[in-house]
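Input record (one chain):
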Amino acid sequence: MIKISKLKFFRSSSHPVIQSSCGGFTLLEMGIVLVITSIVAVGVMVSLTDSLMTRQLSDTTAKLEAIQKALYDYRVAFDRLPCPADVTQPIVPSGANIYFGVEAANPGSCVGTPGANFVNAGGTGQDPREGMVPVRTLRLPDDYAFDSWGRRIMYAVAKDMTQLNAFNIIPGSDATTRMTVNNANGTANTAQAAYVLISFGPNGHGSYSRSGGTARLTSSNNADELQNCDCDSSANPTGLNGIFVQKDATSNPLDRLNSFDDVVVYGTRANLIMQSSLYWQVVGNGNTPVCAANSTTCVTTNGIKSCTCNQ
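The corresponding structure, as predicted from the sequence alone:
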């Protein structure tokens, strides 16, 4: 076995003598040290990555909660929900782009200049419009248009909820089928969603970049992710059908493209009548909220609790 030796000098009575010592590390020992060091380094990197992902998810969830609160405040102030903003508009310093983050024209149809990017594909009785969050209309900072991965947060809204005086025109007893949000089992949490907010998560499949434009990120073939983006595995549009999926993240170790990491939240007309907090949405009937706590159905997804009145 090869050993790395240390050299020591000894002085005799006549002249110095060089003597070899075998007290150094062997190559095998050095290899073991390097392996252990590498394992520790990998562990540290995995821990840092997990910590970053947790923080990004937490920050994105906080933004979605703030947007929900802003939608509620907007409903209180204007008695309707805003149209989506054009997701392709670039963000320009000093707010020079007058269309960035501004709701589409013509409340009630959301079609015009600017207009919603997607309209209902038809045939289901649902009539949603979709684009990005209208942050400037909601008086939110521009940064709330983007999730923690730097991609635009999408906003789908039922067309009838954007008309002038919508919440007076549409009674509290209304049971119109609007947008459907399914759970992990494929059954509906609701078929009456007035709005849906979507972050396309870490993999970002179907998302639009911070800089704007029509290009969309391609990174998934998961059926539920394709449902949320209304696009195929190449991110080509397949038509807005008003059906979304809200569930916890899943991964497929055998197929990295078949994973789900979208973050989806929604609200119904009833949720928007009375919303004391995003963690406890007491809903009511008409202008007199009367729904009792024991008459609600609640689900918690990604740390956000949503409750719907059963009355």
